[in-house]
Amino acid sequence: MTLFKKPVSVKGTLLALLLPAGIGLMAIAWFVHGLLLDRMAREFVESRLKDEVAFLEHQIRESGGNLNTLQTGDYFQEVFHHAFAIHAPLQTIISPESWTPLLMPLLETGPDGATQVDSKGNGRTPTSILAYRKSFQVGDTPIVVIVSEDLGALKRSQAELHAWTAIVSIILILLLVAVIWLGITLSMRPVVTLKAALKRLQDGEISRIAVQAPEEFQPLVQQLNQLLDSLDQRLERSRDALANLSHSVKTPIAAVRQTLEDTSRPLNDTLRQELTARLGDIDKQLEAEMRRSRFAGPQIGKSAYPVKQARDLLWMLGRLYPEKSFELASDLMEERRWPLEEHDLNEVIGNLLDNAGKWSANTVELSLIEERGRMKILVDDDGPGVQTESLSSLGIRGLRLDQQTPGHGLGLAIVREITERYGGTLSFETGARGGLRVIVDIPWR
């Protein structure tokens, strides 16, 4: 069973954390204030008593130790505002006389310096005093001087000051609560604005979130807009795929249907081959559109392990082309992640390796590189290569430079399409092995 229930809101959490912290700090400050006030007051009183003792000592030395020549009574009381006692072998002066029970023991024995004396008190004498004692000699005459102050009155003054400090502290805590509440309310205003924008988005009034958010909320707004862009792109791709599929299969289906409905022509081998070709075209188009529909493009929170996926694909292509060598060159760690959707990365690397495997003589090399905030995939083969004037034609959907090699001319077009969805580029050049080098360059998101 938990003692404290976790707050269900950010405002409640902040208040639950800041208020106890503020009250605790204020209480500590008030406690420390009391200690410092007591220490400073004692040191101040002790300093005053010491100065008055020094004054009395000076007066006694000036009189040659004759206490009768001192102006006692009202003079010293008006000057000192403290009780004092002067003791010589033949004479003792204590003012006021009601303090005699407290000061007389200090005159007879006791260390020099400040001493606190506590007693029960009788209504005329204080219960606690601070006395400063000093003994000296004037010629051969020993003299003891004591000046003291009522600590009870001082403590009452301190208590009153400390109480006013507590009142001020409570007022400050209330002001702190108000400031915290106002600060939290102002800080949470962008959340309210964002909530309203999301409601308008849900109602279809806006298509993107465009609010003036603080710096801390900008990444959230950007990621929400990226998510909306991604959803729109996937919807658009789905619609395009359906439209392309409908348009592409309509003609082959019509041709097959016309052939089957024509009862005047026998279904010979030529017609069978023609039907097979038309159905093959439909199958190819269905396969191409199905592959296109699986492309995700940039997805928030999606990432892939390029080295691991590359090793798996190299192993698979090695089994598909056992007479050829597939190699990996990369400085990336096995656990390194790229912000690419796994299926998209598989399509890019798989199509490039498959294309290179068809054309290479002996070796295909795959390189995975990171430099200056970009992800690069390089595939080199040692095949016949492509003439310079034909490099720009590579990657165009349905275009094949060599009709003799098996394939549909879609591999490089698929790689180009995926690369462009991530804001990257697909380029071709002659590689160091004399064959074709394909370069996929994608910026880091």
Main attributes of the structure:
5-stranded antiparallel beta sheet, alpha+beta, 445 residues, 10 helices, Beta-Lactamase, 5-stranded mixed beta sheet, Heat Shock Protein 90
Architecture overview:
- This protein is an alpha+beta fold.
- The chain has 3 domains: 12-156, Beta-Lactamase (2-Layer Sandwich); 218-293; 306-443, Heat Shock Protein 90 (2-Layer Sandwich).
- 52% of the residues lie in helices and 17% in strands.
- The protein has 10 helices and 10 strands.
- It has a 5-stranded antiparallel sheet.
- Helix 8 packs parallel to helix 9.
- It is rod-shaped.
What would a concise description of this structure say?
With 445 residues, the protein is an alpha+beta fold. It has helices spanning 10-62, 74-80, 100-108, 151-187, 189-202, 218-261, 269-293, 306-320, 342-359, 411-421; strands spanning 83-88, 91-95, 113-118, 128-138, 141-150, 325-330, 363-371, 374-381, 425-430, 436-443. The protein has 3 domains: 12-156, Beta-Lactamase; 218-293; 306-443, 2-Layer Sandwich (Heat Shock Protein 90).
Q: What is the succession of H and E elements? A: HHEEHEEEHHHHHEHEEHEE
Structural class: alpha+beta
State the helicity in percent bands: 40-55%
- Name the beta content range: 15-25%
Q: Tell me the domain tally.
A: 3
Q: Any idea of the CATH topology of the largest domain?
A: Beta-Lactamase
Poorly predicted parts: 400-408
Task: Please report the first level of CATH classification, the CATH class of the largest domain.
Answer: Alpha Beta
Query: Spatial order of the strands in the main sheet?
Result: 2-1-5-4-3
The DSSP helix count reads: 10
Task: Write down the overall geometry.
Answer: rod-shaped
Biggest sheet overview: 5 strands, antiparallel
Distance between the termini: 45 Å
Q: Rg from C-alpha positions?
A: 49 Å
